[in-house]
Design goal:
- With 162 residues, the protein is mainly beta.
- The chain has 2 domains: 54 residues, no CATH class; 83 residues, OB fold (Dihydrolipoamide Acetyltransferase, E2P).
- It is built from 2 helices and 12 strands.
- A hairpin with a 7-residue loop joins strand 3 and strand 4.
- It is globular, with a radius of gyration of 18 Å.
Length: 162
């Protein structure tokens, strides 16, 4: 696993709200945890010398990995975002906005969707599952990047049902 892939994974975890993720392969063991003192632990093995990196908020001399940039809200004020409905992931998998890389996205910000309309695809165990909108309205925001892993019940889209 390359450093960029590890950083992308850490960025995804910070956005998803997960507290802990463990990945283990023949060449790498990766454990990412979120708490106040130690945020990340990376252990390499195999042909690479084992290395442990702790990100310690209390000790600035320890190297740190850049934090994910917070998403900007389209609407100011939290009470306005509460009026939007969410289309959530019904499963764990990989989120795709289109049926293939050459195709247009199923929906874009500003598009109107109706209940039952396909909004994305989630790949799980080599099966591509079409995800349909459960509500009608206007897409306000896409909350997940294309080809990103998603968790069960993770919000994918914000919809204005008005």
């Amino acid at each position: 696993m390359k450093t960029k892939e590890i950083r992308d994974l850490i960025d995804f975890i910070s956005k998803s709200g997960l507290n802990e993720v463990n990945i283990e392969t023949d060449e790498l063991k990766l454990s990412v945890k979120r708490n106040a003192d130690v945020q990340t632990q990376i252990i390499g093995s195999g042909a690479v010398n084992p290395e442990v990196v702790h990100v310690d908020n209390a000790n600035p001399s320890v190297p740190s990995i850049p934090a994910a940039k917070p998403e900007e809200d389209i609407t100011p004020g939290e009470e306005q975002t509460n009026k939007y409905a969410e289309i959530k992931s019904p499963m764990i998998g990989t989120f795709y906005r289109s049926s293939n890389p050459e195709s247009d996205s199923f929906i874009k910000v500003g598009d109107t969707v109706s209940s039952g309309q396909t909004v994305c695809i989630i790949e799980a165990m080599k099966l591509f599952n079409e995800i349909e909108a459960e509500i009608s309205g206007t897409i306000i925001k896409v909350l997940v990047e294309d080809a990103s892993p998603v968790e069960y019940d993770q919000p994918l889209f914000l919809v204005d049902p008005a």
